[in-house]
Structure formats: C-alpha cells, structure tokens
Amino acid sequence: MNDLIASDLLPVPCILMRGGTSRGPFFLAADLPAQTPARDRVLLAAMGSPDPRQIDGLGGAHPLTSKVGIVGRGVPGEVDLEFLFAQLQPRTDTVDTTPNCGNMLAAVLPFAVECGLLKPSGDVTRTRVLTRNTGMVCDITLQTPGGKPHYAGDARIDGVPGTAAPIVIDFLDTAGSVCPALLPSGNALDRLTVSDAATGKTITVDATLIDNGMPMVLLRASDLGRSGYESVQALNEDAPLKATLEALRLKAGHRMGLGDVTAKSYPKMCLIAPPRAGGSVATRCFIPHVCHEAIGVLAAVTVGTACVLPQTVAQGIADIPGSGPVHAISVEHPTGEFTVELETDPTRPNTIARSALVRTARPIMRGEVMIPAAAWPAT
After folding, report:
1. Exposed / middle / buried, residue 368 (Cβ in 10 Å: 0-12, 13-18, 19+)
2. From CA 342, how far away is CA 300, in angstroms rounded?
3. DSSP per-residue codes, 47-94
4. HEC letters along 101-162
5. What is the distance of C-alpha 274 from the center of its chain?
6. pLDDT at 201 over 70
7. What b/e sequence results for 146-159 when a residue is b if at least 16 CB atoms lie within 10 Å of its CB, and e otherwise?
8. Which domains does the chain have, with CATH numbers?
9. What's the rounded mean pLDDT across residues 136-157?
10. How far is C-alpha 271 from the chain's CA centre?
C-alpha cells in the first residue's frame, strides 16, 4: 500500500480489467490486507457496496461488474500464478470467494504481465494458474509477440463488442469444483418437488444437478411453462418464476452437498430449450436471482457437459454434432452463443477428460482506487 497519504483516503493500486463478459479491478495479493475480514472491508469500499448503484466505488451496479480478481505468485514447480476470485453484490455487503469465474480468469495472465508479476516467454506465453477458490488448475495462453501482451485480434465473443486477441483456457480438472463430484447427487437426473409460486400447487420437475467448474441446476424451460427463449427483461420481471426457481435452488443445494444456499451465489439456475440459432442448446441462466444477459464461462462448460452426458435433462433437447469423443458444444444465450470444447472418455461414463474454450480480455485502466481510511485502519 502506498504510504504517501494526502487525505483521509487511502490509495490501493489496481488495474481495471475486462475478462470475457465480466469486468472488475484486479489487485496484487501483496497490496491487500492479509487477514480476510480486513481484505473484505477494503474490497467492499473499493467497489462501493452495499449500494444499488455502487455510486461511491468501482462497481457497475450489476453482478457481472461487481467482481474482483486477486493475483499472486504461485508455488515454484507447481503453478506460476495463484488467483482468488471475489464476487460482490451491489445491494449487500457479502464478499463470496467460494465460486469460480471463468470470465475473470481470462484476465489473470494479462494482469500479471501488465503489473510485472510475470515476464512473457516469447511470442506466446503459456502459464499454469491455480484458482484458490476451488483448487482448480488451468493453463492459460496469451499472445505476446516481441515479449509484449497483444490485445488486438480476430477473436469474437458474444456479449463484447468488436474483436480481440484470443486467450485460450485449458481446464485440467473442473469436475466437482465446489460440490463433492461432477454429479453430486450421484444421479444424472433428479426430481425436485416444490410449491409453484404462480398457482400455489405442488409441482415436480426433472433437474440435472451438476458441477463441472460451476455448480448448476439445469431445468427444461417447458417444465416450468416457459419457452426458454424469453427476453432477459421478461424473465427478470417474472416474479413467480423467480420465486419458484429459488425454491428449487434451495432444495437442490442440499442434494448437491452445499447445505443451505440462501446466502450463496450458487448453484446457478439454468433453463434449457432446443436450439433455434444453429447451436447445440438454448439457455437462460440466473446468477442466481438475476437473468444473465449472456452465460458465464464455467456455466457454459457445465451446461455443455450436461449435453454430452447420458440421461440428463438435455437428452432429447440438445443437438450434439458428430459421434466421436471430442464435442464442440455451441451454447446459445440471450445475446449470442458460446462454444466450448469437451472431450468425453468412452471407457468411463459420466466423466469429462478435457474442457477448453477461448475468451478475450484487456486492461481498461490502471491506477489507484481511493478508499476511506476507516476501511483499512492502522494496526
């Protein structure tokens, strides 16, 4: 932390990064308090939470822009970098470091290079990263021609304007990232019974409870009387649906070994429907109470996984091209599509051998975020 204080505000170095379709400040772990309670106070002050508009901080008044990345050096011989993701919310004072975020993960290597934590290795830099939230390890590849990060390119991802240089993420082990297993209930298909918020009647719906990087509950949209093609605005205004989804989420949380998830940002809820834009499956995801305008990286990986596993809710809905072990799954979402590559293991049912995808990222602003001194009192 900078010791030169000209007022009762403290400057904390950071770089505002876009990672995929998310955005937030990235900090070096060494520039934040070591103790969790103090660190969380600093992050809340930096983001301006709790406040619906986050008007007094860097937050963007939406869960997708209320995210923080914390990066440090890894253990030599094991991983190059360690990444801790923090999900904040505009309206609450929670700092959740239990889930992963694949979008923000895409910004880890560019941030490390930009702040001098890691030196590029030739025209292409490949780095192993440990996500401390769940212990997930991945390899991230960044274009660094001439030993400098390169952000211009032809890669396009829906939800982000224009094109940019591709950042490739190879996930090494994402199954059961937060839950005990890929299929934490032990089933590819579960039945959940709750009270329908619109009618008050008891309903039973099929669900796939799954975690291949993100704990999720997948439901057929038609089972809840929806098409799965509704607009984000319509779904966010659909109070009965959101109440029913929350009841299902709370019940699913226990079956997934997550306990009471009332105050947790996971599992995410996802309505699926047959594709209608040339993809593999149509989705409407909730994170967990707001309908996502796109879909998260690890959510897309998890949805894609359900599409290639037998006997899930995606059976009969998803259009899976080809018959080999490698599948390119195009996940349609409200603002486009997201393609993930999944490799199944024919000798082990209900397992995924490899998951990979392409994202883009870039620094937006570098400097210092000013926080009230009370958020980081002298010790």
Report:
1. middle
2. 11
3. HT-S-TT-TTSS--SSGGGSEEEEEEE--TTT-SEEEEEEEE-SSS--
4. CHHHHCCHHHHHHHCCCCCCCCCEEEEEEEECCCCEEEEEEEECHHHCCCCCCCECCCCCCC
5. 23
6. yes
7. eeebbeeeeeebbb
8. 9-166+361-375 (3.10.310.10), 190-355 (3.10.310.10)
9. 94
10. 17
Q: Which two tokens stand for residue 84?
A: 């801790």
Phi/psi for 358 (5° steps) reads -120, 135
Of 274, 276, 270, give the one whose Cα is nearest residue 317: 274
Those residues with Cβ within 8 angstroms of residue 265's Cβ, 6 or more apart along the chain or in another chain = 63, 87, 89, 96, 98, 99, 287, 288
Pairing between β-strand 81-88 and β-strand 326-333 as defined by DSSP bridges: unpaired
Place of tokens 């301006």: 48
Mean pLDDT across 187-203? 94
Q: Cα separation of 154 and 162, whole Å?
A: 9
Instruction: Give the H/E segment covering residue 245.
Output: helix 239-255
Rounded Cα gap, residues 370 and 336, in angstroms: 37
Q: At 345, phi and psi to the nearest 5?
A: -110, 105
Contact of 155 with 141, CB cutoff 8 Å: no
For residues 131 and 214, give the distance between their C-alpha atoms in angstroms, rounded to a whole number: 13
With contact defined as beta carbons under 8 Å apart, do 361 and 113 qualify?
Answer: no
Q: Are strands 281-286 and 190-195 parallel, antiparallel or unpaired?
A: unpaired
CA–CA distance, 114 with 110 (Å, rounded to integer): 6
Give the tens place of pLDDT for each residue, 319-337.
Answer: 987 677 888 899 999 999 9
Share above pLDDT 70 across residues of the chain, in percent, rounded to a whole number: 98
Is the pTM higher than 0.90? The answer reads no
3-state helix, strand, coil in the chain (%, to 5): 20, 35, 45
Question: Strand 81-88 and strand 95-96: pairing?
Answer: antiparallel
| pLDDT (mean) for 286-301 | 92
Please state the φ and ψ torsions of residue 45, each to the nearest 5 degrees. -65, -40
- Distance of alpha carbon 103 from alpha carbon 285, whole angstroms: 15
Look up tokens 């993420």; give the residue. Answer: 169
> Of 168, 165, 171, 152, nearest to 211 (Cα)?
171
